[in-house]
């Protein structure tokens, strides 16, 4: 097995293994690379839905069916990330998956089924590197602070449709999902490293602390977190697989291919409630 880092802070290409036949010793090396590099990539891995589910289960318990995304026939936990003719992708946002949950996912396994001839890359950013790069006064300003995360942006999207009463299905679901509060700086549950924990898709605002306290600028944190220095960009091929640590990364889908057909299968692994990082690491 060969592990090749792809940038200074995040991303590695793993070669020389077959994810369909990965023994425990090899998987241990894969998992170590996952923790070290935060997102790991593979080519020439042709995973059936059954095989993708089995691989994801090695990382932990699986999330239930996504409330909005369609799924592969007969496999509700295998979400379809798909573009078809006349159904182009909507506007893309930098995001960490499902931070509107009290316990957002640990990681995701994404497998490319078919792709445009060009375009459709995905970019990941290290939120550990983003935190490390903040000046000390900025770290102090966000220490022990929390932010509100909530579902928004799906209503009227290509994942929405009308229910039996003619109302938005997404709005019907989201009205029963309460906003949650997460630390601005979280501690990784396995490595102990601090990470900036905001994303422009689901972080709504920073919560007030003491009366009169000046709140950090959330838009400035968004801008800082997606700096190119913290990124890795991946060009998909049919059979490519990406596995990313959702606890310390965010990502962005590049929607530069119009309505050219593109389909990926996604399986998500459950996480834990984010813990605040105490200190100014």
Give structural notes.
- The chain has a single domain, classed as Double-stranded beta-helix (4-Layer Sandwich), CATH 3.60.130.
- 18% of the residues lie in helices and 28% in strands.
- It has six helices and 17 strands.
- The strands form four sheets. The protein has an eight-stranded mixed beta sheet, with helices on one face.
- It is globular and about 55 Å long.
- The two termini are 33 Å apart.
- One of its GO terms (molecular function) is dioxygenase activity.
- Keywords: Dioxygenase, Iron, Metal-binding, Oxidoreductase.
- It comes from Enterovibrio norvegicus.
- Pfam families: TauD.
Features of the shown structure:
single chain; about 280 residues; alpha+beta; Double-stranded beta-helix; 3-stranded antiparallel sheet; 6 helices; 17 strands; globular; iron; AtsK-like
Number of domains: 1
Average residue-wise pLDDT: 91
Summarize the helix and strand pattern as letters.
Answer: EEHEHEEEEHHEHEEEEHEEEEE
Looking at this structure, what is the CATH superfamily? Clavaminate synthase-like
DSSP helix fraction: 10-25%
Query: Do you know the CATH architecture?
Result: 4-Layer Sandwich
User: What is the structural class?
Assistant: alpha+beta
CATH class: Alpha Beta
Q: What distance lies between the first and last C-alpha atoms, to the nearest angstrom?
A: 33 Å
**Mind summarizing the main beta sheet?**
8 strands, mixed
Number of strands: 17
Strand content: 25-35%
Q: Give me the number of helical elements.
A: 6
- Overall morphology: globular
Order of strands across the main sheet: 1-2-3-14-6-16-5-4
- Gyration radius over CA: 19 Å
CATH topology: Double-stranded beta-helix
Spans where pLDDT lies below 50 across 5 or more residues: none
